[in-house]
């Protein structure tokens, strides 16, 4: 996974520039207002500081849609160029109006980074470490603030500090970011698949994952193009073909699906369990209890919680259920070759792929993923050959009574599979249905069900049984077209991925799953901004000065302006270890758990700040209480409420609308940031510091309730599986509301 880690680190440099800019202007404005005599013009001083915020808000309104159109990488390149040009303009700045232009350009770069870096990291990271990698922007942003405060503090000790140099030095790290985006960062493989550029997407995935066989994830990316399909939750017992116990409550005969591995003689049988999936049963039971008890917990939260309760803790990028399944895109063993589909292997060594010539999707993939002419069902098959043999050199699965499936690992212990069911109607004509399945092993400690034991060919386990129990999300594949099926009477008919990705944007945004995800994402962004972080940042220098830090620094001969910069540097430095802890916990404890455990600490810290400002007490006691509360607030904010909203927003939207949906969330973030920033001085005058912190504490209480009732846990799940569960959960909630 080192490739994905390095790419995420490189992308997060953009957030380092954001933090650098935020800290630099805070120090430089002290000298700007002296040179331009702005002491009597506070509105212009405020505009200089806020111009970056205005630029970020403006560019966010269209950045998501353009990113879905042009790609993630070009927009990151543009952000580095805007950073670079803006810093040079600020370095030159002969007057205040040119300075405002430089700040505006800089704000454009900030807006693009805040919107696109979380998308980019989520779309390139493996599910197992996606939370860790998506916390990197928070870490690099705080690191950039710390480095910038240290630089500005050092320059403030000079006889005549230059604010132009303070702002203009940003061109150095922005130039580094530019070269990284040009020469190191690849395009998002999910975006490439959405445009039908399959070969290029495959090469990027191979680089990111550090292995040749990325067939399962390629199939997952294609399946992620669909929005709003009908999905059912089922359960299968999977085991060696001859060893599935007959006494289990399994629906046998026509419903069984036989799975073939890449080695001759290696096969499994998957049989649906009567009564549906354990996940679906638990979800229904939870929803029923919620209704009986009058609970407000969203059925979506119950559904995700049921999934995580039944997941074993051994999810990996490798297949847990089918360790011998081969590659969909690489030749292996005695796999049959379909020359019509062998375009990729027609390229000789040393020759460029078609995508290297910059051609669009029609030149990357001239035909559908499955041949419409050669998918007739074959009843007698052996290992490695099956009804979907026209998948490029893929390992195959043949089902009893005309059902077939092909399965591969897609990360987090999940598998993707397909089954083809062919039946005869009353008139004797054959009709079929092509289904896509997301599988995940269910864990049942102390039970034979769910234990992976002595699977043929090296499956590990305890020896208690030779089968596993797996939950399954069953839906129509993204490329399956019933209209095309009417034109081709044999086998499943497929459409081009780029054709699947096209659709009405408004129609996609109206999908129940997308609307539910937008509600969660926008709600988190609003509550994060009104939870008090700006107020605490504003008050921190005053608190630390009361604690005696200012007196100590003045005794060392440091001026008051330099002292405020050093205090801010120390504040941001305290955040870094807390963010490092959050990086570790994000994929272990989970996003929801971190929010539910850190928000109460924020509430407690704010309540202590309220009390310390209302009750008359000894100055030393007041300083100690205030300092401890501020430090705790900062540490636990950056562990939970700081990075988590952006992480969740980058995970819960489908590929086709991910850019525009995250842009909506980011626009909400910037608008709320403006409201909070400019309302704070007014609130301080009207209700005082204690009243402001009390209001923030109330918002944090509302935030905890919102997370508990509405925000699901997404750790360790592939993005496409998350969006599928949102779709299922949203429809379940609508059905319950109607009933």
From TrEMBL:
Question: Does the keyword Membrane feature in the UniProt annotation?
Answer: yes
Q: Give the top-rank taxon of the lineage listed in the UniProt record for this protein.
A: Eukaryota
Cellular component, GO annotation: plant-type vacuole membrane
Protein topology in the membrane: Multi-pass membrane protein
Please indicate if the UniProt record lists Transmembrane helix as a keyword: yes
Q: Which key words tag this protein in UniProt?
A: Membrane, Phosphoprotein, Sugar transport, Transmembrane, Transmembrane helix, Transport, Vacuole
Where found in the cell?
Vacuole membrane
Q: Which Pfam families does the annotation name? A: Sugar_tr
Identify a single GO molecular function assigned to this protein. transmembrane transporter activity
Spell out the residue ranges making up region: Disordered: 333-368
Q: By its UniProt entry, which PANTHER family does this protein fall under?
A: PROTON MYO-INOSITOL COTRANSPORTER (PTHR48020), SUGAR TRANSPORTER (PTHR48020:SF35)
Q: Which family does it belong to?
A: Belongs to the major facilitator superfamily. Sugar transporter (TC 2.A.1.1) family.
For this entry, the protein name equals: Major facilitator superfamily (MFS) profile domain-containing protein
Organism expressing this protein natively = Brassica carinata
């Amino acid at each position: 996974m080192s490739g994905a880690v390095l790419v995420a680190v490189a992308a997060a440099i953009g957030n380092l520039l954001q933090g650098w800019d935020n800290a630099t202007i805070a120090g430089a404005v002290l000298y700007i207002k002296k040179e331009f005599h702005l002491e009597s013009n506070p509105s212009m001083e405020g505009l200089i500081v806020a111009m970056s915020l205005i630029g970020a808000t403006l560019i966010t309104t269209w950045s998501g849609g353009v990113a879905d159109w042009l790609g993630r990488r070009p927009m990151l390149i543009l952000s580095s160029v805007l950073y670079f040009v803006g810093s040079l303009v600020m370095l030159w700045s002969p007057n205040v109006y040119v300075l405002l232009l430089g700040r505006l350009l800089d704000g454009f770069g900030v807006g693009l980074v805040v919107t696109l870096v979380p998308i980019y990291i989520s779309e390139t990271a493996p599910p197992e470490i996606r939370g860790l990698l998506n916390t990197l922007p928070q870490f690099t942003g705080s690191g950039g603030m710390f480095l910038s405060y240290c630089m500005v503090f050092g320059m403030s000790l000079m006889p005549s500090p230059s604010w132009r140099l303070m702002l203009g030095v940003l061109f150095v790290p922005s130039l580094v970011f530019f070269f990284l985006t040009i020469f190191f960062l690849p395009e998002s493989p999910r975006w490439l698949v959405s445009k039908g550029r399959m070969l290029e997407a495959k090469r990027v995935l191979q680089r990111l994952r550090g292995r040749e066989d990325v067939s399962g994830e390629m199939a997952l990316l294609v399946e992620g193009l669909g929005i709003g399909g009908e999905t059912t939750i089922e359960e299968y017992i999977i085991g060696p073909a001859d060893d599935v116990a007959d006494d289990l409550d399994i629906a046998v005969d026509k419903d069984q699906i036989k799975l073939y591995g890449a080695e001759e003689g290696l096969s499994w049988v998957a049989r649906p369990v009567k009564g549906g999936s354990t996940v679906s049963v638990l979800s229904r039971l939870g929803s029923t209890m919620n209704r009986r008890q009058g609970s407000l917990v969203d059925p979506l939260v119950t559904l995700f919680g049921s999934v995580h309760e039944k997941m074993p803790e051994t999810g990996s990028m490798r297949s847990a259920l089918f360790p011998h399944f081969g590659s969909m895109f690489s030749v292996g063993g005695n796999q049959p070759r379909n020359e019509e589909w062998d375009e990729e292997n027609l390229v000789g060594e040393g020759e460029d792929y078609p995508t290297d010539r910059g051609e669009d999707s029609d030149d990357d993939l001239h035909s559908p993923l499955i041949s419409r002419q050669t998918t007739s069902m074959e009843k007698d098959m052996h290992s490695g050959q099956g009804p979907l043999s026209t998948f490029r050199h893929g390992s195959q699965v043949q089902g009893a009574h005309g059902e077939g499936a092909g399965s591969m690992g897609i990360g987090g212990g999940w598998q993707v599979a397909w089954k083809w069911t062919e039946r005869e109607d009353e008139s004797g004509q054959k009709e079929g249905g092509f289904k896509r399945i997301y599988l995940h092993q269910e864990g049942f400690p102390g039970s034979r069900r769910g234990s992976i034991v002595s699977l043929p060919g090296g499956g590990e386990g305890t020896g208690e049984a030779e089968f596993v129990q797996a939950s399954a999300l069953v839906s129509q594949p993204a490329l399956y077209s019933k209209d095309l099926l009417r034109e081709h009477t044999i086998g499943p008919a497929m459409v081009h991925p780029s054709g699947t990705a096209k659709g009405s944007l408004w129609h996609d945004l109206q999908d129940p799953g997308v609307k539910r995800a937008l509600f969660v994402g926008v709600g988190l962004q609003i509550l994060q901004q009104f939870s008090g972080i700006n107020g605490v940042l504003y008050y921190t220098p005053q608190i630390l000065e009361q604690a005696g830090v200012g007196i100590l620094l003045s005794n060392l001969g440091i001026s008051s302006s330099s002292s405020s910069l050093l205090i801010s540097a120390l504040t941001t430095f305290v955040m870094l270890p807390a963010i490092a802890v959050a990086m570790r916990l994000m994929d272990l404890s989970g996003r929801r758990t971190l929010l539910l455990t850190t928000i109460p600490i924020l509430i407690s810290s704010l309540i202590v700040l309220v009390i310390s400002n209302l009750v008359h007490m000894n100055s030393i006691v007041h300083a100690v209480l205030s300092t401890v509360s501020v430090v705790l607030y900062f540490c636990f904010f950056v562990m939970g409420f700081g990075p988590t909203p952006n992480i969740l927003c980058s995970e819960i939207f489908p590929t086709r609308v991910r850019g525009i949906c995250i842009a909506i969330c980011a626009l909400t973030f910037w608008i709320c940031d403006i409201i909070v920033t400019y309302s704070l001085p007014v609130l301080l005058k009207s209700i005082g510091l204690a009243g402001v912190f009390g209001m923030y504490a109330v918002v944090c209480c509302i935030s905890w309730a919102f997370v508990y009732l509405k925000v699901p846990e997404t750790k360790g799940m592939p993005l496409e599986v998350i969006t599928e569960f949102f779709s299922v959960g949203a429809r379940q909630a609508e059905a319950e509301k109607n009933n």
